[in-house]
Amino acid sequence: MPDSLPSSALAPTLSDRRPWPWAGAAFIAIATIHLASQLFGLDVLNNVTQVFLMPALALTVVLATTSPRSLLVRLLLVSLFFSWLGDTVPRFLHGDPGFLAMVGFFLIAQVVFIVALWPHRSHSVLRKPVLLLPYIAFFGLLIAMCAPNAGSLLVPVIFYGLTLLTMAVLSTGLGPVAALGGALFFLSDGLIASRSFSDFLLPQHGFLVMLTYIAAQAILAYAFVTHARSSAVTSGETAS
Questions:
Q1: Cα-Cα-Cα-Cα dihedral of 213, 214, 217, 218, to 10°?
Q2: What confidence tier does 234 reach under pLDDT thresholds 50, 70, 90?
Q3: How many CB atoms lie within 10 A of CB 11?
Q4: Any alpha helices (H) in the chain, and if so which ranges?
Q5: Domain range for residue 156?
Q6: Is residue 10 part of a domain?
Q7: Three-class DSSP category at 65
Q8: Cα of 216 vs its chain's centroid, Å
Q9: Which three-class secondary structure state does DSSP give residue 68?
Q10: Domain tally for the chain?
């Protein structure tokens, strides 16, 4: 490859010419409106905006990347799709079926994240078991809070919690930004569990759930796309 070729040409995963900032701005606007509707109890606006959160974020990822997209980016988009289903489908169901649909779709989303992050496990906190202690402690606290009221759902709750724990731990393999996203996702779902199976409620609990959830998804998306770009540049330089 000629030495005169700019480094950006070595990174087909990210496009600097496509209008992805506009999609990102749309995502931020939708997220801001959604969080405001949470704070002020605007239920109709809350429901409508939540349905558009993940599509706006996925559109940002699509416009920020070009073909051929890396496996990491493709799996990110799959996870965002199942997260969107988790946000949307329960609105057409009521009671336990709605809750189980939400958990089921988000479980699939977490499994997809795990598959995406697994190749990077050698760079995660698994290298230093002492760094696993905060994750294990938070998982143990959640189970202790939920167990008394979970009933027959205790085993699924534990399984889902272990899935969240695994995703959060593996996210550290992509660096501190992804680690923050994984931790926020763990926290967000932990707040949902505490609301569903215990009496623990924080002021503006629903707002905090969505704030941590939206931040987690956005941060993970940023980390995945950034890592894909960096890997493409490295591969291109090696090939040259």
A1: -150
A2: low
A3: 22
A4: 20-40, 43-64, 71-88, 95-117, 133-150, 154-171, 176-197, 205-239
A5: 71-234
A6: no
A7: strand
A8: 5
A9: coil
A10: 1
Tokens of 141: 């606290």
Q: Which of 1-10, 31-40, 155-164, 186-195 has the lowest mean pLDDT?
A: 1-10
Q: Sorting pLDDT into bands at 50, 70 and 90, what band is 230?
A: confident
Does this model's pTM top 0.70? My answer is yes
* pLDDT mean over 81-106: 94
Q: Is residue 136 assigned to a domain?
A: yes
219, 51 in Cβ contact below 8 A? no
How does DSSP assign 11-38, residue by residue? -TTB-SSS-HHHHHHHHHHHHHHHHHHH
Residue 145 resides in a domain:
yes
Q: Which residue, chain included where needed, has tokens 């931790």? A: 183
125: closest CA among 184, 181, 179, 187?
179
Q: Is residue 117 a part of any domain in this protein?
A: yes
* Cβ atoms < 10 Å from Cβ of 170: 25
User: Which residues on adjacent β-strands are paired with residue 65?
Assistant: 14
CA distances from 33 to 71, 81, 113, 157 (A): 32, 21, 27, 31
Let me know: does 78 contact 111? Beta carbons within 8 Å. no
